[in-house]
Amino acid sequence: MHFTRIDYQDRAQRKSDKGLEVIWRGSRTFGSSSQIFTNAFPVHYSPPKGFSFEVLADDVIPVQDDMLLFDYNVEERVNDFVAAAIAQF
């Protein structure tokens, strides 16, 4: 489960304590069968720049996977996404 909204002070505390990822123990009755891996994003909950594929997004760079198109960019977009994931890590 991913928490997208969290109080900024709670996020700062959890980030400094390295507690953004936890095992949520939902029920003593059900024991480990009710445990859920949970996390809160370290910065915010929006996608990396250029990867919001909503219609109204200003920074959309579509993935062009047709090699016959002049603007084929799969390798570039994959590299951009990996770089964004590494930066967030």
UniProtKB/TrEMBL annotation:
A Gene Ontology biological process term: mannose metabolic process
Domain of life: Eukaryota
Record domain Glycoside hydrolase family 38 N-terminal: where: 1-84
InterPro entries: Glyco_hydro/deAcase_b/a-brl, Glyco_hydro_38_N, Glyco_hydro_38_N_sf, Glycosyl_Hydrlase_38
Gene assigned in the entry: gb07678
Listed PANTHER family: ALPHA-MANNOSIDASE
Designated name of the protein: Glycoside hydrolase family 38 N-terminal domain-containing protein
Organism encoding this protein: Eleusine coracana subsp. coracana
Gene3D superfamilies: Glycoside hydrolase 38, N terminal domain (3.20.110.10)
GO molecular function: alpha-mannosidase activity
Transmembrane annotation, as ranges: none
